[in-house]
């Protein structure tokens, strides 16, 4: 079948081809003189490529003479001969476009034109050959594996990607759509290197809805199709497979080990060819309480930095080893001495003298200070969550990082925003204020006062912590990676939030032994290929791996 673009071209050309080929000149060529005699000619040939590299005369189409500057057609006298040669006559000096409009359907790619200059009155000018490129074609079928049965897909979208010779990357070229029973075809392809992307979201939520030919889940795994003049590829059949997720787990012996393991993983700051990564800033927060680390994760992501957890009165050996490996340019300790003691600060200072502590009178002031330090030039958005509990602020971290903003803790049931938080919003440039969580954690008065300062924003929430994480992630661009952490404990989720923020992936919260249905549907209906569980079996059991066990 013809693609949508080709059908529109055919319709447009039908009107052009209705023009009379012999008659009075209805326009003038560019640079022509009004008093110049019209006694010149333009002659040339229309040729088409052949599969063996030769050319043959082509007459299946219509010749037109156009004004280059406007594209207007001139009704000039033309003789078009069976051997593909032509002559326009009765022309004055000036610039012209000779345009050959194909008669569709055709074996050639597209219409062609050449620019010709008639230098003087009463001259005979020979135009360059009009050479039509022989087109390639693709055709095949699309099916889906639905509940173990291969079923034709009559609504699939096929995107044709072409390789850019200059950059080596693939870009959009054209679209096609399958018809029942899953058959599709596309023609008029110029020579080049192509990839095919198949998409369908109508078969089943359990079906993988994006596949690159022949069966790759990523563009990098696709097979290239090299089109030469006249090359036709048939049998480009694709079966969209069952959706499955590759499960990975980041876990250590305890919360501190998990914290270190996240940074050495491929989603953190792994060594490359034995060389340690560059870490501009390392945030250190308590692994025994959640408030300080909630704002530290997005702040670290903003600066391409990392987050590690420590004990109040000591640095676990696994964390100390990770700090040594990372060798950060500077360290920021978040929280007062009640959270991270002076002795721990001194031990960190011995490892990196460029160190500072950010601490306020309480968790709310600390959160504001972290935001000011990490976003000195303002923010694109600001997320506000209750400081009384951790789930909403944890889920907000990756979204805030992706949208270039902080997570700020507030007294959610205060009825109004406090002066210090209002001043912070102004200092951040009054970005849109996103309130995270329901009215039971952040009341309407706090919401309205924040939005009044920002003049934009809204609330993102769900009926529970799991649904709120889904709602937040719906705001993010599609990702091939999804992080999952326990919604019942904060330590592993702190680590997961920082890791997800770094790579621009969503963070979902889950029960220990099963996956809430809303979370399961969001991930399976998305584009995730890799599922990264953060925490050991005590936090996320085997039923969460691969999302094999739904709750309820």
Relevant terms:
552 residues, Immunoglobulin-like, 12 helices, elongated, 5-stranded mixed beta sheet, disordered N terminus, alpha/beta, 6-stranded mixed beta sheet, single chain
Any overview of this molecule?
Helices cover 24% and strands 30% of the residues. The protein has 12 helices and 32 strands. The strands form 7 sheets. Strands 1, 2, 5, 6, 9 and 10 form a 6-stranded mixed beta sheet that branches. Strand 24, helix 5 (342-351) and strand 25 form a beta-alpha-beta unit. The longest helix is centred in the first third of the chain and has 14 residues, at 4-17.
The amount of helix comes to 10-25%
**What CATH architecture of one domain would you give?**
Sandwich
Straight-line N-to-C gap:
47 Å
Principal-axes geometry comes out as: elongated
Classify the fold: give the CATH topology of one domain.
Immunoglobulin-like
What's the count of strands? Answer: 32
What's the CATH class label of one domain?
Mainly Beta
Query: What fraction strand?
Result: 25-35%
Structural class: alpha/beta
Q: Identify low-pLDDT runs.
A: 1-27
Mean pLDDT: 90
Question: How big is the Rg?
Answer: 33 Å
Main sheet specs: 6 strands, mixed
CATH-defined superfamily of one domain: Immunoglobulins
Number of helices, where a helix is a run of at least 4 consecutive DSSP H or I residues: 12
Quick rundown:
The protein is an alpha/beta fold. The two termini are 47 Å apart.
